[in-house]
Fold this sequence. Notes:
By secondary structure, the chain is α+β, with helices and mostly antiparallel strands.
Amino acid sequence: METDEQLEDLLRDTFAQARGDGRGQLSGVGAGAFARADRLRRRRIGMTVGAVAATVAIVGAAVGVGAGVFGRDAGLTPAVTSSTSASAKRWSSLVPGTAPFSYRFPDDVVPDPLPAGARPLDFLPVKPPVSGSSGLRSSTVEVAVAGEDPDLGGVAGFCRWEELAELRQPVAGQSFQFQLSSAPGSLGAQLGLAGFTTGTGADAMADLRRGALPCLVPTTMKAVDWTSDGDESLLFTATETTADITQTVVMAVTRVGDVLLSGTARGRDAAEARKVATSLSSEAASRLVREAFPPAVGRPLGDSAAAPNAASEVGAEAAEPVQQPDDYEFGDVFPAASQLRFGMRYHGDALVSRNMPAATGAQVCDLSGRPERQATSDAAPHPVAGSQQDAWAGDGAGADPSVSFGVTGWPTGSGAVSFRALQQDTGMCAWMPHQQRVSWPGEDPQETWLSHSTGSGGAYLAARRVGDVIVSVVVDTLPADDAKAEAIRLSGIVAAKVEASGLPAAKGR
Length: 509
């Protein structure tokens, strides 16, 4: 099993690959490497499903959320203040924010009472009720504050403001975390707020819609209709299966002025998750507008009119999407559960992302520490489609048998070149750990690859080329002969299913 350092490499991998791309749109950023590293880390340290939910992996089919869950509030109008000077004094305690932010949000923006089903975390430090000095009426709700963090992704997506620093950046942020009554003791919901340069709130929302904001909505989440209390709104929903537990994941975003408010929730009770996420977003937005919080009604606060970078300025050119969708989907190409051996079983849905290595489980793509390989990595073809599935025995917390399946599709006509790069370790990704090739009797050495890792554990990798598709299977924590035989057997099953899929790429078209 991978070491902690290797798992961290996997987490850094995607963004480092994107930075080296040089195309400005960071198309290397994707959920695949993060999700896989998260699964491996969860197996290593036995994290609870709820705690893991706060990371990056979202997989599954979308579930519908009806439109108009919360209609526009006819009474949503700013409160009248006695004078401009009184209004300025009212918010002065929130300026400046913690560097580099221009201001802070009021702590009591959190709905009071909390939406039914949400309650404060009972396993993190709790911030006591505020006295009302921040400008909003005093709250009786105790909430765990995650800090001055513009985390719009919450428990549904993920934000990487620092790694994607050339894209639009916020001038303020805050997040509040909660648990759900259906999943006590877990991080099940979050309210995240991000304020943007004065006059650019609509642009920030447009970036989020296009996937061009550093807070990324996983591509497997689907947008559905929803109307919130605000200037505009977005609602994304999906289901995911983790550790054999299916959960509903909801992300509800409301824009008021130059502020985006994101309510996120995940839990087994779909109705509860939907209600909590939409209520957090909509009701918090209403509170800000009713109290005439300046950024929520399009006015500056502190130095919020000063853009943190060129992409955040008023009138800045629209950014390209961070994540490019796959050119096609593979569908069901992995072995059936009944075909797995040694007690191994699937523990989640397949991950779908074009941004994964050809031999998932045996390669990394972060070559920032290897400048001699970076040039060949940049010049090599990149996948246009990908899917990954993992299975393991036991609870995954110990040294249990495991297998990682991967299929990647490559640009038309580049399958042979890409597979040769895999064999020669010259492609966009590199071996980790190093691989020692072994003979594979009866197979064409130009179309197949069989190797074992030289590190501890001796995992076996079997890879095959099927047209412009590369199939890879890594089997770990089994006796060497068994691992080798399983890698060969399972790779044959996957290759046969790819060949029978009818995909043009499987025929090199």
